[in-house]
Amino acid sequence: MPISLAALVFVLAIAACNGYDPVAQTRAAAKLPANYREMFAAYIKAEKRYTIRDAMITEPYETYGGVLRKTPYATVCVVTFKENPDLLGRLLIPIVEEDWILTIEDGKVDRLSAIKKDPCPNRSPFPEVVG
Predict the structure, then answer these.
(1) Which of 51, 80, 101, 124 has the greatest count of CB atoms below 10 A from its CB?
(2) From first to last of its 131 residues, what are the pLDDT tens digits of the chain?
(3) Could you tell me which residues are beta bridge partners of residue 111?
């Protein structure tokens, strides 16, 4: 049974709202080395100053490169969950999250600053950094 045009438009609209673009995602994944997860895990472990209770990672995606960069960055978002460092805040919110927007430039991991809050959609477990 053929799919109606309205149904196809609806599915594409939902995919666009969720930010899922399979072509851009494939393009972004191709820009990162095959061992990007290990590289990002090593970077986070070296930079963190706290115990990570849990972590999630997105699939590679493209993000805006800024005014001086003509091509978008191939990025991955990692969300780490840690104990609240504020002693009083720990009573109300014991676990807080931290977003890491990461890319690889010239063979080195680089943490990008997000101009807007990146929601880090479509996350999956990232046990490589827990501990």
Answers:
(1) 80
(2) 455 554 444 444 434 444 556 666 777 778 899 999 999 999 999 998 888 999 999 999 888 777 777 778 889 999 999 988 887 888 888 888 888 999 999 999 999 876 555 567 789 999 999 98
(3) 102
Of 57, 64, 24, 65, nearest to 40 by C-alpha is 57
Q: DSSP secondary structure string, 24-53?
A: HHHHHHHHS-TTHHHHHHHHHHHH--S-EE
As given in the structure block, the two tokens for residue 83 are: 């104990």
Q: What is the bridge-based pairing of β-strands 52-57 and 95-105?
A: unpaired
Residue type, 52: I
Q: Which tokens hold the place of 75?
A: 């990025």
- 124 burial (CB, 10 Å; 0-12 / 13-18 / 19+) is exposed
